[in-house]
Write a structure and sequence with these properties.
single chain, mainly alpha, Ribbon-helix-helix protein, copG family
Length: 178
């Protein structure tokens, strides 16, 4: 798909989003003044910065993207990030939603093994149920490097991240089930 077509598809999804941030009163005044000096609302200023930071649908140019990336790379949360399961999943291109679906399926199986009798009977020797195999395959390299990790806590971080993403995307049906 051409860049123009991809950008047009992205443009069609532009809508107001609700993101909660914590700021002091003084920081609210500072960001409002900064935005006002530029003739922008605070939201418009942040939209522009985010566009540059992520190389988004709209950007102010390559220099601005480079500077935003440099800012991110210099911040403590970029280079001193925790070695979390979420970081691992995102860094290696795993779909967090698909991973959590496998986790949910495994949790259901542990409580209701009788519901999987047919699937278990169809397995060949050494073969595992799809969700168990997927979880093991995805987490094995992470756990080898982070043997002291609490997998349940790490999975909860993934759930929290996915819930926040779905809230921003407006996927209300999804977030109600979490």
């Amino acid at each position: 798909m051409k860049f123009d077509q991809e950008q047009q598809k992205e443009i069609e999804t532009i809508k107001e989003r609700n993101i909660k941030i914590k700021l002091s009163d003084a920081d609210c005044e500072r960001i409002s003044k900064l935005a006002g000096k530029s003739g922008l609302s605070v939201g418009e200023l942040l939209e522009n910065f985010i566009g540059d930071l992520v190389g988004g649908t709209y950007s102010n140019g390559s220099d601005e993207r480079d500077r935003a990336e440099q800012w991110y790379e210099r911040c403590w949360f970029s280079w001193m990030n925790e070695d979390t399961l979420l970081h691992y999943l995102l860094d290696w291109g795993h779909d967090v939603d698909d991973f959590l679906t496998a986790v949910d399926e495994k949790e259901y199986y542990e409580v209701n093994p009788q519901d999987f009798t047919e699937e278990v009977e169809k397995l060949e020797e050494g073969e595992k149920l799809w969700f168990i195999d997927e979880i093991e395959e995805i987490t094995k390299p992470y756990l080898e490097k982070n043997s002291d990790a609490n997998l349940m806590e790490e999975i909860e971080k993934c759930r929290k991240w996915l819930k926040e993403l779905n809230l921003m995307l407006g996927n209300e049906d999804y977030t109600q089930t979490i």
